[in-house]
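The methods section describes the discrete structure representation at length, but only in general terms. The central task, working out the structure tokens from the amino acid sequence alone, is never made concrete. Nothing conveys this as quickly as seeing an actual entry. For illustration, here is how one protein appears when written out as sequence plus structure tokens:
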Amino acid sequence: MRTDSRLPPLVGALFAAVPLLVFAAEGASYPPPGNDIRDRASLQRGAHNFMNYCSGCHSAQFVRYTTMAQDLGIPDAELRANLMFTSTNPGDTIISAMSPEAGEQAFGAAPPDLSLIARARGTRYLSAFLHGYYADPTRPSGVNNTVLPGTAMPHVLAPLQGVQQAVPVKHAGPAGAETTEQVALELPQPGSMSPQQYDVFVRDTVNFLQYIGEPVEAHRRDLGIWVLSFLAVFTGLAYLLKREYWKAIR
């Protein structure tokens, strides 16, 4: 009968994998570059952006003002004065100033609730959408979008970003026919913000949309690191215990 005090290769590999599990849970590519749901200052700015530019048409009916204020460290006085435009009760959920019927009449479809838009579409999509507006005289709103062609949503951020122009390029098609494709957008004249400032504005807004999609996400990810680490260590200890029980019948 032989006992081996050395750590079995499998157990050693499990213990070595703990830092890798932690790194994977942190995920350099998640959240996407530029987004940080732990950045309270960014989330606070994003909340102001949402309430001032989005809540006129869009609701966030799964989020309560009190929850948002508590999570983001927003004082009650500021919440009531600068963020609550459609309610006087902080316990209410965020509803839009526009009714679904009015939205359908104005845009042809009721503006969607944005509580889960970041989870449904992804933050990269939202950022690209808010950067993708360009002038299109054929559209009722005078603009179109590279990410969602034919969108009914007007470019409410045009005073901030300015209105981009599509840059077409011609290609030789079959039988010498020319085809025109839109390949890029250019900004002849910025709005009240520089392109860099607008990038920050969009990042903060998308950051807030990611937060309201899952307010406990940061806590869940932190807890996940410890759970994965515990499971790795427990598996190693269970393997050692199994060897101790079974060594007598080798």
Q: What stands out?
A: The chain is about 50% helix and 10% strand. Residues 168 and 211 are 37 Å apart (CA to CA).
